[in-house]
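FAQ: What does a multi-protein file look like?

Like this. Sequence, then tokens, then the next protein.
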Amino acid sequence: MTWQSVLLHPAFMWPAVAICVFVIAYYQSEKVLRWLHARSLGQKDEIVRYMELMFVEVNDKKLTWSLILISVGLGLIFFILFWPNIIVGFIVGSVFTLIGWTLPKHLFKSLYEKRCNRFVDQMVDGTTILANGIRAGLSVTQAMDRVSKNLKNPISQEFRLVLSQNQLGRPIEECLNELGERIPRQDVQMFVTAVNILKETGGNMAETFQTINFTIRERQKIEKKIEALTAQGVMQGIIISLVPFVILMIFYFIDPNYVMPMFTTAFGWMFLLLVFVLIGLGGLFIKKIITIKV
């Protein structure tokens, strides 16, 4: 009997795994509990924040139960799929339960990012209306009211909120600063800073709005060009990440006994974990390479 067979023997493997888990849980229990909370109910606070930023009404109780059903339901489905292999089903179900907790946050974050990008796109028309309004003799707030009436959401919602806060007695500078916090984009920050400075020092605000308009247009042209140039890299990253799973499915349908040891032995689970880690790192590196900030 070789030392490799001794290490991979269940009589040695499972006690070693149990001891490692116990030691890690004993010394890192507090960090593990914080991590589990952050990956479970802790996600709810982030989701609530994104929903409030998108002017979506939040029902805390319904949101909590929805997160529980999505995560636990997804984990239960995969646990049943691996039945009667309880150990594998429990491990896979636990992983997909954590994924179920995380997915809604990323979904709402994606919706929020799209809303911010749409706001920046609308600023091209918005700054044009603002510049024309200033030339016609309107104040900044009056010109913003024209924007809120002539353009669609989200810029209409955001400008109406700014005007409502200003009508309640808050300084327009403070209201615009909060707009910059709700829409954390460089173009919005440039707009807010320009308006606040010109209201203090004076200057040609109409010309400033035209300059902001030109800057946003040029930035969008560069971003579109970068998206076109990096589209091939994005597709390559997706294909490379999916190839191992496709090959695994092909082998499973051709000869299930050939790949079943990957799901029924401790060595196979370690190999699968290594595969997932390497695929994740590869996807992360490709994303870093093709992500170019303008």
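And here is the next protein:
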Amino acid sequence: MSARTFKIAVIGGGAFGTALASVTARAGHDCLIYLRDEQVAKSINESHQNPKRLPGINLPESITATTDAEQLQGRQIILFAVPAQQLRPTLSALAPYLKQASHIIACAKGLEHGSGHYQHQILAKYFPQEIILALSGPSFAIDIARELPTALTIAADNIDNADKIAALLSTPSFRLYSSDDLIGVETGGALKNVLAIAVGIVRGMGLGASAEAALFARGFTELQRLGMAMGARSHTLSGLSGLGDLVLTCSSPQSRNFAYGVALGAAASQENLPLAEGIYTAGIAAGLAKNLAVDAPIISAVASILDGTVTPKQAMTMLLARPLRNESG
């Protein structure tokens, strides 16, 4: 690939998909965003705004939005920015229109409920001949859209492929670091959501900053332990897509998972809160930890809280009652 203009499609008109469309347009590419809401598509095309997902943000005028899947034909690079649990049904509907694509990028964070598959594994089943990549790291859509400095990781099985996409999509404010550790990049993005719920619960219970810091540190140990058992590399988990994303997600109420945890800890209603992917990932991660004989008490506690087995207070009591141990692992 050279520095020439490419025809790119972003699938998903949420905040993150809209922000990614902005990035690709600012990088000089022909960007089409596919979404289901005709009113939002009309607003993006006519007023260059997504009032539902990124209100008040002016989008590049070169972005085109559509609800017509036929218009996806001929797009060379596809970014899937739909929630993790919606990827497979979205692929079932749209894959026939994406036959000319050469690079397919997973942009959601989470393991598929039921199968436990990573996003890149699902994509590979539908696009066995194409180059599959995963994009992850510490990022809020509003920061990307406002052109605030953001750094993420783009991963592919072959580092050269990751390098090429990093060069194509990076802008002065949006910096991509390449990796050939797909498992590591996706594992960090999935597990940090579960741990953000845990830290949010502690915040909601009012247990103090010291407790939050302790849970964060021990949670990161679990992320590393389970991630490496799943085939991730240690340096990936300590990088942007692991530790970096965990720091962001556990420290801001902008994080959907953290906000969900706060509501759980405060015994407040979660009914009107936005989707938190960690809800789906927690049980899968706890099951993987059990099957791999990995000690992950915080992840398991979150899964038990979410399935109603224990209350947040009971889970905290159980965690504090665990035998003392050294900090070597």
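Q: Is there any per-entry metadata?
A: Some entries carry free-text notes. For the entry above: The chain is about 45% helix and 10% strand.
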